[in-house]
Design brief:
Layout: E1 3-6, H1 10-15, H2 21-30, E2 36-39, E3 50-55, H3 72-89, E4 93-97, E5 111-118, E6 131-133, H4 141-159, H5 170-173, H6 176-180, E7 187-194, H7 199-203, H8 206-222
Parallel strand pairs: 3-4, 3-5, 5-7
Antiparallel strand pairs: 1-2, 6-7
Helix pairs in contact: 3-8, 4-8
Length: 225
């Protein structure tokens, strides 16, 4: 089985017990250290192999719209479908969920990830990179923090994008689905990149995006406890 890399440092362990944006700043700082290699372990028999993927804005609206008509929901849905295909090939049961899917109410799974993309407007030359967050009022913060850390590490390695810890918004940490799912379901939301400066990656380089998400989820689901 492929070796997975998870960055485990004192800063990251402390961050697991903290909420809000400060925990993500600490995780981001931890990413600059030296990696520790761990081998993925088989799924625990007590853990459900079900994974939920929310394709951001699907069934609701277009999300961000680019000048040439490319929409965020197109990008999110394409990524979610390919991640689902890859996970299903690994033996997972995957639900692709709409933005306000009725199935979100009380949803139980080994993990839930909502997939989004950032603005299609030019902001400045620094508007490139990704964000990952969990609920500020998470009921299983240690698990969700580990999910976030796995995604940050794997996605950054696969895509080469930087982690935008300081621009995580309230809309991310108070994302509606976090309040709807079963409280024991670890969950996170990812902004995969900016549709302006990172468009080439999110469309033509999508396999790196998918790889980062799949490996981040595998790190969480299969990695050492």
């Amino acid at each position: 089985m492929r070796t997975l890399i998870l960055l485990l440092f004192p800063e990251l362990l402390i961050a697991a017990f903290l909420g809000g944006r400060e925990s993500y700043r600490r995780i981001s700082a931890a990413l600059s250290g030296h990696p520790v290699y761990i081998t993925a372990q088989p799924l625990s028999p007590s853990r459900s192999p079900r994974v939920g993927l929310v394709a951001g804005h699907l069934g609701h609206d277009s999300g961000a719209v680019c000048a040439d008509g490319l929409t965020e929901v197109e990008v999110n849905t394409a990524i979610a479908r390919e991640v689902a295909r890859r996970l299903e090939a690994l033996g997972y049961t995957v639900d692709i969920l709409e933005e306000f899917d009725a199935r979100l109410h009380g949803y139980r799974a080994a993990a839930l990830l909502s997939i989004h993309a950032d603005s299609c407007e030019y902001i400045n030359e620094l508007a490139t990179g990704f964000k990952v967050a969990r609920a500020q009022a998470d009921m299983v913060p240690e698990q969700s923090d580990r999910l976030v850390a796995c995604l940050v590490s794997a996605y950054g390695r696969s895509t080469g994008l930087r982690f935008h810890a300081d621009s995580i918004t309230y809309d991310m940490t108070d994302y509606h689905a976090f309040r709807e799912i079963a409280p024991e379901t670890p969950a996170a939301i990812i902004e995969t990149g900016f549709l302006y400066l990172d468009r080439e990656l999110l469309t033509r380089g999508r396999e790196r995006v998918v790889e980062g998400i799949v490996e981040g989820l595998r790190c969480f689901l299969e990695g050492g406890e």
